[in-house]
């Protein structure tokens, strides 16, 4: 489905005067030039939505459907198109293969193009056995002690690259579930060497202008060890592969209380931060709505990202993606909330007075450093987000618009109640 642009304009009109007053209020605190700079940066900022995030998620204890789920890749792209129409920030899709192999590549490209959507990083899947596969990944894939399983996993990743080439993607994300549940299950050095050798084989198949993004995770689904368990291992493997390989940071893939903002700063200083998977967590890799639990931490991470983007030209443009699970909420509403949280943290970080912060740091004025950061964090930047959307033709209040337009009801009428998204 598509939203008539006139419907969005009609929803925006009643709130325009209030919005203008809020925006003028910000101009009494920050210069008009800074306001314009932030609004322009927000207008340009695009976050990829993964194809698997449009359906109801779940846990090993259960999955609760809600109706109107997308039953095909085309319907998933259409759902992203709806979110993009409302937010003007979701201008890319990240596909998971083999969950979403296009049946007609040209038709899928034309559909995405008509909705203003590009194809972001491709994601391979060697954490599940696929129907008809000769080898099992029960005991590992790219790092398996079984050569045939490693070769099969490498070939799958190369296949994903080829599909991505046809769609116009420019990067491959590799996440390994490989690991052990018990001490002595494998030799740490052996499996790490296998993983490195496999990644190098995949790397050699990358098109010239592509990037390899190597993800990491300390535990789950294996609970004693994971082959690529932290950012240091990912960084080491990326260096071993070459200049087109980078570390990918998922906000949920860290042990409790890890200083993620320091990891971000370190990787950007080395030119090796490739991208982000946004989510939030309370206990582990909870995949909760972005900013729903630790919004200040998200701001601190963006503070380092903004500094890095302005001061580390050796680091490439970053790939941004939301990676969350929706077991209770309507996933489209959840994604809209996540986009809002990301943009709020980004806007707040753009308001940090860098010169004043540097002066306070050089003078070891710790109290002043904290005040400068928290002044920006406590600023209500939502008028800036609304202004960016208004200028781009989006909805000033996208979640409200989604509900007033009864999008979920319309999707249920179109697709029915008893449908299930592919890959979930």
UniProtKB/TrEMBL annotation:
Keywords: Isomerase, Manganese, Metal-binding. Residues 102-287 form the Xylose isomerase-like TIM barrel domain. InterPro entries: L-rhamnose_isomerase, Xyl_isomerase-like_sf, Xyl_isomerase-like_TIM-brl. It holds the Pfam family AP_endonuc_2. GO terms for molecular function: isomerase activity; metal ion binding. PANTHER family: L-RHAMNOSE ISOMERASE. This is Sugar isomerase. The lineage of its organism: Bacteria, Pseudomonadati, Bacteroidota, Flavobacteriia, Flavobacteriales.
């Amino acid at each position: 489905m598509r939203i008539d642009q006139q419907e969005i304009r009609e929803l925006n009109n009643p709130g325009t005067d209030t919005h203008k007053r809020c925006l003028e209020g910000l101009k009494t605190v920050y210069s008009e030039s800074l306001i314009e700079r932030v609004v322009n940066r927000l207008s340009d900022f695009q976050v990829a939505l993964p194809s698997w995030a449009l359906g109801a998620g779940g846990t090993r204890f259960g999955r609760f459907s809600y109706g109107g789920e997308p039953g095909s890749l085309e319907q998933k792209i259409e759902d992203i198109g709806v979110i993009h129409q409302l937010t003007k920030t979701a201008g890319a899709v990240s596909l998971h293969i083999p969950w979403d192999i296009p049946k007609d590549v040209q038709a899928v490209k034309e559909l995405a193009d008509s909705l203003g959507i590009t194809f972001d990083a491709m994601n391979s899947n060697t954490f599940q056995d696929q129907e008809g596969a000769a080898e099992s990944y029960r005991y590992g894939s790219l790092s398996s002690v079984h050569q045939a399983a490693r070769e099969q996993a490498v070939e799958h990743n190369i296949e994903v690259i080829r599909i991505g080439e046809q769609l116009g993607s420019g990067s491959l994300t590799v996440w390994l579930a490989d690991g052990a549940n018990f001490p002595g299950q494998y030799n740490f050095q052996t499996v790490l060497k296998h993983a490195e050798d496999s990644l190098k084989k995949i790397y050699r198949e990358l098109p010239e202008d592509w990037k390899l993004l190597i993800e990491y995770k300390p535990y789950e689904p294996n609970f004693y060890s994971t082959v690529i368990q932290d950012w240091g291992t990912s960084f080491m493997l990326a260096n071993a592969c070459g200049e087109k390989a980078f570390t990918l940071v998922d906000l949920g893939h860290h042990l409790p209380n890890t200083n993620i903002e320091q990891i971000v700063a370190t990787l950007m200083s080395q030119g090796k931060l490739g991208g982000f998977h946004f989510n939030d967590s309370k206990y582990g890799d909870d995949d909760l709505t972005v900013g729903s639990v630790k919004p200040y931490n998200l701001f601190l991470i963006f503070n380092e990202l903004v500094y890095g983007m302005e001061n580390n030209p050796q680091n490439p443009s970053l790939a941004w993606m939301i990676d969350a699970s929706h077991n209770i909420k309507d996933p489209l509403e959840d994604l809209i909330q996540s986009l809002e949280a990301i943009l709020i943290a980004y806007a707040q970080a753009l308001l940090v007075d860098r010169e004043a912060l540097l002066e306070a740091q050089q003078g070891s004025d710790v109290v002043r450093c904290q005040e400068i950061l928290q002044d920006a964090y406590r600023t209500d930047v939502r008028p800036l987000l609304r202004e960016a959307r208004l200028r781009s033709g989006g909805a000033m209040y996208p979640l409200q618009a989604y509900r007033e337009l009864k999008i979920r009801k319309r999707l249920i009428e179109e697709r029915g109640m008893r449908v299930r998204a592919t890959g979930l």
